[in-house]
């Protein structure tokens, strides 16, 4: 790596939500910049005024913030830089690297129809390319790049390797429209140069664009950035990712309750690898990430892998951080905020809830016993465990618990003693006890629940269930 500071960028178009593929592109740029002590910039490519919306821009920023991908400086609006883009087009015009084209749309279409009829290339060859300026009419014109027509353009891509494109496949692309507005191809190059971008990491659907954009770099005498075109994400069936495969937007994954750290981990592994490592931290990812680890084949979305990683991240998260993320999840999904007693109870319960929960909703369901308020309404299966016989046994158990030392061994001994007195097992007595304490047939250990909610709450719930 040279002494030049690494600068990467993420440049989404604000025409919708932050797509999972875009999120991965942003992550790769963020990891590469952070890992090299560089800068990660954000540019909103809002030149398509008909489709760009403030709501989409807000959704993209919200998605990036949820993912934890912080950018350096302010987000840049490409639309606001239109005068600078036009300035460069006119500089190229003055240097002879571009020309005014007065061809109308009808003339261009007539050219292409003739080319198709003669079975030759339909790339438009403007008759104005080498025209004497003295012959220029007083009419609307576009500014076209004067692209080389012979030889080849070679893209040295950090992911795809050497890619060679014949210059006879490249057209004299329009850089400035007849109304004076810049095209996307010009704007991208000017912005990347002015922002000091050293590495362009983006989807491989832009690979052909690189060949055309290089002509602008060369014409302006600007250094060409390092290209890294990454394969797209496919669905589990190997086909292009679409709605039929499930969630496409980052906000959907947030709403499903995956921790942001798990999403970063999972997205990093979609198309990039570091040996056999699957679970890793941000610090490890930043230290390990390199363009050489990106594969050339499309990555496949795998929800089971995501869930597995999500569970590992939930289990590994410090309790205070996990509680903070749970509260943020409730707020993001418009669910009621925790009351102070619920928050305190959840904080006590988290150590025994973390393992086994793969998403925040699963963890919250496991925490039902500490979040619910009396009297608990048991679900259908739990209610079946509270028959008359079971209620009688719980009534007999209550005084034993009232006098027991509130420690796990003592509680377990008290329950076991009552179970044996009725010719049953501790495991069988756990079902009605669980129903009384949690209102659920599935919950943490009954003894863990007793320790978390305390003696008074335990006895009160047993009384509510008829166990006194």
Automatic annotation (TrEMBL):
Transmembrane segments: none annotated. Catalyzes the attachment of glutamate to tRNA(Glu) in a two-step reaction: glutamate is first activated by ATP to form Glu-AMP and then transferred to the acceptor end of tRNA(Glu). InterPro entries: aa-tRNA-synth_I_cd-bd, aa-tRNA-synth_I_codon-bd_sub2, aa-tRNA-synth_I_CS, aa_tRNA-synth_I_cd-bd_sf, Glu-tRNA-ligase_bac/mito, Glu/Gln-tRNA-synth, Glu/Gln-tRNA-synth_Ib_cat-dom, GluQ/Sye. The gene is gltX. Residues 5-306 form the Glutamyl/glutaminyl-tRNA synthetase class Ib catalytic domain. It is found in: Cytoplasm. GO terms for biological process: glutamyl-tRNA aminoacylation. Keywords: Aminoacyl-tRNA synthetase, ATP-binding, Cytoplasm, Ligase, Nucleotide-binding, Protein biosynthesis. Its main location: cytoplasm. Monomer. It comes from the Bacteria. GO terms for cellular component: cytosol. The keyword Flavoprotein does not apply. ATP binds at residue 243. Belongs to the class-I aminoacyl-tRNA synthetase family. Glutamate--tRNA ligase type 1 subfamily. It is an enzyme of class 6 (ligase). Its EC number is 6.1.1.17. It catalyses: tRNA(Glu) + L-glutamate + ATP = L-glutamyl-tRNA(Glu) + AMP + diphosphate. Residues 330-465 form the Aminoacyl-tRNA synthetase class I anticodon-binding domain. GO terms for molecular function: ATP binding; glutamate-tRNA ligase activity; tRNA binding; zinc ion binding. SUPFAM superfamilies: An anticodon-binding domain of class I aminoacyl-tRNA synthetases, Nucleotidylyl transferase. The keyword Cytoplasm applies. This is Glutamate--tRNA ligase. A motif ('HIGH' region) lies at residues 12-22. Coiled coil: none annotated. A motif ('KMSKS' region) lies at residues 240-244.
